[in-house]
Each structure stands twice: as structure tokens, then as C-alpha cells.
Q: What sequence folds into this?
């Protein structure tokens, strides 16, 4: 009986082996698509292994994010909220708002999407101001803070009509997650999504290796023309985001003013941390914490990382002797 069973099982085993070989061969021969374009005032680059091109689907998804979260789009949900119009928010807005609340609490307010009035006043937001004095800063601080806004169902409730929201420090990361989910829904197993430097990866690249993502050296570069790399991270099935003050800044009366505004002091940050790269399970989380670390500075950032096993970071800072130094989480793999 055992011999007869083996005779019947052998053909099935051969079929399974041949099927597996054919699937592997098909996967290896399947081309990688390369899509790119502009969104949110920056560039996107998306590489994915598929027999089909999904650029139309990708652009439709990016447009949906823009219509929800872009303060530069006058008809977006967030713009209407900022104008205090009666608007029912969408799922994307609620997802980002809920995550922003959680991370704001976890970072003691270092990450705060209500910082928009201060960012605008310092000349870095969707409305342009320039150099507010101490009195103006104190006045604006009175309408900044996540305790001044909440969701009631799908409606935003403000404690003061002057409260404004800006999700720029999380929206590109969230958009990268949206495209990653779209590709997963299309059963794409290998991809890299990058929107303005915020990245989500899955599987392997065209060389059948983990994805290699560069981190720029934080040299002053307001024109965005200097792309010298500090290092390269090896990541797969993870998301990565970087925040820094080396590109978006200005000088006035010989003093540098960086675009990262501390919601507590109301002032541009002044500390040794030059660049914060965070690796996390989603790009929205990585994006928000990278911004928070730039507000907190290196010491507080390291303290937070010590209690978050799900976060890893690559921090570039200026040492006391003026040299550029690096601190990184032990599990990060770099070149």
C-alpha cells in the first residue's frame, strides 16, 4: 500500500516542483517599472516589479492625498478647515489627525500640526510672514497646541477660530504609505516608493538585494543642488524619513533662521542636531518622529528612542569641537 501511495504522490510532487520553478523564473524575469513626477511641490520616484504600469492609479491616489491634506490646495479639506468652513473631513484627514495627536503626546508637543501660524509667521509656511517680534510670537503661541483642536465625528472642533493646521511634516510620509498600500493591493511584492525623500520599501531591488537608500550630508544647500551622501541605509519592508535644517533656511542680520519651529518656544530651533533620519513600520510615523527629533535635539531624541523598540534613527549633529558626528541605532545597516 505504501508503495502504491508513493507512486501516486510522485507525479503531484513533480508538478509542484515544476510550478515553483516556473513561478520563480517568472518573478525573476518580470520587469521593474519606473514612474516619476511632481506632487506637493516636490518630486516622486516609484520603482516596482510588475508586468503592468500603474502610473495612472498612483497619480489618482496622490491627487486624493493632495485634496485632503495640502494647505497649498485652496479646495482641500485642510484648507477649508483652516478657513473655518463647514466641512466633513475624509478618512485620510482623520487618519493623519489621529496619528498626529498620538505622536504629539508621545513627544511632549515637539510634533504639533497646529504650529502653522508660527511657521507662517517665520516665513516657512503656506502664508508668508517674516521675523515676528516677541509680542507677536507670544500672541501666536496662544493659538498653538493640540489641546486646542479635536475631532467630533468627522468635524474639526477648534477652541479658537484662529487655530490653523499644517500636516506638511507628515503628509509626504503618509502619501508614501498610501502608494505602498496601493501597490500591495495590486499584489506587487517588490517596490520602493519615494516622495520628497520619504521612502517605503518592500522586498528587493532589481539586483535581488535589499533596497539601498542614501542619506544626504547635511551641508547648507538652500538651492537643493548638493547631493553628497553621508551614508547609505540597507532597508527592506520598512519606511524611512529624514528631516533637517540644511536646505530650508534664511539669514537675516547675520543670523541663520531654520524652518523647524519649536511649538513651545515659538522660535526656530537652535541646537546641534543637523539631520534626523528615522526608520519605522510606516512612513507617516517616520516622517513625524524625524520632525519631532529636529525640535527636541539629539539628547531628548535618544531618550525617546530608548523607549521605542519599533523606531531606529540615524542622527547627524555638530559636536562641541565643531566637527560633524553621527549617532545611529545599533541595528541599522549602513555602507
A:
Amino acid at each position: 500500500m505504501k508503495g502504491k501511495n508513493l507512486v501516486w504522490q510522485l507525479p503531484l510532487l513533480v508538478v509542484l516542483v515544476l510550478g515553483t520553478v516556473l513561478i520563480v523564473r517568472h518573478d525573476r524575469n518580470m520587469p521593474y517599472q519606473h514612474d516619476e513626477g511632481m506632487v506637493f511641490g516636490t518630486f516622486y520616484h516609484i520603482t516596482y516589479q510588475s508586468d503592468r504600469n500603474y502610473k495612472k492609479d498612483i497619480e489618482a491616489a496622490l491627487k486624493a492625498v493632495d485634496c485632503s491634506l495640502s494647505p497649498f490646495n485652496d479646495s482641500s479639506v485642510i484648507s477649508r478647515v483652516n478657513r473655518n468652513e463647514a466641512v466633513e473631513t475624509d478618512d485620510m484627514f482623520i487618519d493623519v489627525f489621529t496619528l498626529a495627536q498620538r505622536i504629539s503626546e508621545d513627544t511632549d508637543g515637539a510634533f504639533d500640526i497646529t504650529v502653522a501660524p508660527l511657521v507662517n509667521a517665520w516665513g516657512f509656511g503656506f502664508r508668508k510672514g517674516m521675523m515676528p517680534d516677541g509680542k507677536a510670537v507670544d500672541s501666536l503661541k496662544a493659538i498653538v497646541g493640540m489641546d486646542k483642536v479635536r475631532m467630533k465625528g468627522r468635524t474639526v472642533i477648534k477652541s479658537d477660530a484662529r487655530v490653523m493646521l499644517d500636516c506638511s511634516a507628515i503628509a509626504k510620509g503618509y502619501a508614501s504609505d498610501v502608494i505602498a498600500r496601493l501597490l500591495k493591493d495590486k499584489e506587487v511584492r517588490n517596490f520602493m516608493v519615494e516622495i520628497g525623500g520619504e521612502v517605503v520599501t518592500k522586498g528587493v531591488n532589481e539586483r535581488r538585494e535589499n533596497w539601498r537608500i542614501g542619506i544626504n550630508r547635511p551641508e547648507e544647500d538652500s538651492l537643493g543642488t548638493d547631493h553628497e551622501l553621508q551614508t547609505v541605509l540597507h532597508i527592506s519592508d520598512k519606511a524611512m524619513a529624514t528631516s533637517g535644517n540644511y536646505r530650508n533656511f534664511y539669514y537675516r542680520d547675520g543670523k541663520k533662521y531654520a524652518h523647524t519651529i519649536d511649538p513651545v518656544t515659538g522660535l526656530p530651533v537652535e541646537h546641534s542636531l543637523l539631520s534626523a533620519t528615522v526608520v519605522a513600520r510606516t512612513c507617516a510615523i517616520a516622517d513625524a518622529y524625524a520632525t519631532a527629533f529636529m525640535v527636541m535635539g539629539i539628547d531628548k531624541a535618544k531618550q525617546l528612542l530608548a523607549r521605542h523598540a519599533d523606531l531606529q534613527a540615524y542622527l547627524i549633529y555638530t559636536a562641541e569641537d565643531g566637527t560633524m558626528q553621527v549617532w545611529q541605532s545599533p541595528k541599522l545597516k549602513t555602507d
In short: Residues 2-29 form the longest helix (28 residues).
